[in-house]
Amino acid sequence: MSVNGLKIIDILNKIADVIDENKFYLTELDAAIGDGDHGLNMSKGFAVVKEKLKEDTGSNIGDILKKTGMALVSNVGGASGPLYGTAFLKAAVVMNGKGEMDLFDFVMVLQAALDGIKMRGKAEPDDKTMIDAIEPALNVLKDGVEKRLPVKVTLKEAVDAAYRGVEHTKEITARKGRASYLGERSIGHQDPGATSSALILDTIYQAIAD
Ligand code: ADP
Ligand code: MG
Ligand code: MG
Questions:
Q1: Quick one: which ligand is closest to 117's CA?
Q2: Fewest C-beta atoms under 10 Å: which of 90, 93, 96, 169?
Q3: Structural domains of the chain ordered from first start
């Protein structure tokens, strides 16, 4: 099973819509342990992504992801803009020149994205960041590819792992970003960036499962 560039554009448009639908929720989560702008930052950035992809013919998935990354770097404020932007720019390198993407490509894309986020933000698992949603999802994807499980099953299990990661962020102390200023007072609160990452992965799964 693989998806072409037009489907990738369709998925990115859906991500933009889901982020927009959840912007107050994400902003509320950020208000509790940060500065209350995560939803607004992300919805603004993804609105520009939508705009930038309007004329794209979908022939080069690397180009699509590069446009996405550049739009996020320059239009999402705060910590999450450069982090998500870097994630998409690193993913773009993996897909450069390719018109189709299969599950194996997606594993490499998500690995590159995660490596980019870690390189840029210097956070590790359990620092209460987006990494706590992305890394468990990636591990499930790798396992599914290795065992040759069906794509939809693997994606669904990866999304479940991402949401479990989001739940786990409630139990831990923030060690990176604004929430780290609260120290142990951040315990009990869900990380907004992990939440937006899980929503993005869920949207990808749902678009593939349709
Ligand atoms: P800001 O905190 O600058 O206002 P946002 O509110 O848009 O930026 O994003 C906050 C989210 O960014 C956090 O919930 C966290 O998931 C993520 N984040 C912050 N710092 C880092 C980091 N160093 N590495 C990975 N993710 C981070
Ligand atoms: Mg914020
Ligand atoms: Mg901010």
A1: 1
A2: 96
A3: 2-209 (1.25.40.340)
